[in-house]
Amino acid sequence: MMDIQCIALDVDGTLITDDHQLTPKTNELLRRLHQEGKVIVLCTGRGPVSALPLLAEMKIDSVLITHNGAVTLHSGTREILHQFDFPVAWIEPIVQYCREQQVHFDINTAFDMYAEQMRPEAEKMYEMYFANPIIRENSLEDVPSLVKFTAFGTREEMDALEGPLREIVANSEDLRMIRSGDLFIDIMHRNATKGRALAAFCANEGLNREQVAAFGNYYNDVEMLKFAGLGIAMDNSPDEVKAEADEVTLSNNEEGVYHYLMDRMFVHLKNDPPIPK
């Protein structure tokens, strides 16, 4: 078995259940691994405001990779260690198209989120993700640079939107588009990926990729799974994502992260005081 020192975890669809809960068993196991000196890194499409509560729940102070790799920060100090940002002008055609098609979208700096409307379904989604967007008529006004644009809608709406947005993004050599979930399409700087951000973090910490285990479930996790010495896809992942992983574990709703870590990598913890059921 590899000498795993760093555990990189996607959040939605991986670490937490579909009802957005971090189970007690998973929480306690990660806390104990952190106390043992293992590096726990959340690598998420969420912004910091939406991701920091999870680390607080686990009582873990660590580096956090957010916005699909666009922003890396320290959870304790909230210091931004690195970000891939881009000028607002780069996404003006995308914003205009979404306005015309009445697609809900938001734009993001490292810590702030802006939107131009708030439909009931969007309000419910933001509440679920601990997000509180600033609503204003022109979301692009007085924002010098961004780290992420996100379109939101039903799966059918995002399926229909993906092609047209990809055509617009193809006109720019500096942007990339990724389907970060069934209900989300993200557009970011072309260099912003979870894998690239995780590689930079590991290089800074003196960790090699063979010491990293990464868990993910969606297309925005592929670069991270391929970088890690051990890439583990959840059973709820699309087949294309599973094909890029080294192994597949149980689904997020079956506590796949907990079972893989406990049964395959850190069996010695079974001799410690029982982890809550």
Automatic annotation (TrEMBL):
Parts forming coiled coils: none
One term of GO molecular function: hydrolase activity
Superkingdom field: Bacteria
Keywords, comma-separated and alphabetical: Hydrolase
Pfam families: Hydrolase_3 (PF08282)
Known EC number: 3.1.3.-
Cited PANTHER family: HAD SUPERFAMILY HYDROLASE-LIKE, TYPE 3, PHOSPHOSERINE PHOSPHATASE
Protein name: Cof-type HAD-IIB family hydrolase
Species of origin: Marinicrinis sediminis
